[in-house]
Design a protein that fits this description.
The protein is an all-beta fold. It is built from no helices and eleven strands.
Length: about 120
């Protein structure tokens, strides 16, 4: 089993910054891809940014040039630096980890961390 835990959410004013962290822990796995998703009330969960173990990243159009995703393969952690935050960025942010274990690929989700941007 792999545990995924997010941290770093909170309340910030519009234009401010937050940094989210995600840590995957367990035995006998390697990271393939990690990603940040978010879900606002009444909305579907959407991809914010993802990054492969090789460093290839992908961003939602709404966060390009404002958010930066990074991965530390040695520590099995991922970070999301969020700058120039807007009220519409308010949501619960979830970390998803796609990992290899025993020759198979699995996905694991964290419990989420709340990000609230006030206007």
């Amino acid at each position: 089993q792999v545990q995924v835990v997010e941290s770093g959410g909170g309340l910030v004013q519009a234009g401010g910054s937050l940094r989210l962290s995600c840590a995957a822990s367990g035995i006998g796995f390697s990271i393939d891809t990690m990603g940040w998703y978010r879900q606002a009330p009444g909305n579907q969960r959407e991809l914010v940014a993802s990054i492969t173990s090789g460093g290839s990243n992908n961003y939602a159009d709404s966060v390009k040039d404002r958010f930066t995703v990074s991965v530390d393969n040695a520590k099995n952690t991922m970070a999301l630096q969020m700058n120039s935050l807007r009220p519409e960025d308010t949501a619960v942010y979830y970390c998803r980890a796609e990992v290899f274990r025993g020759g198979y690929k699995f996905q694991y989700w964290g419990q989420g961390t709340q990000v609230t941007v006030s206007s």
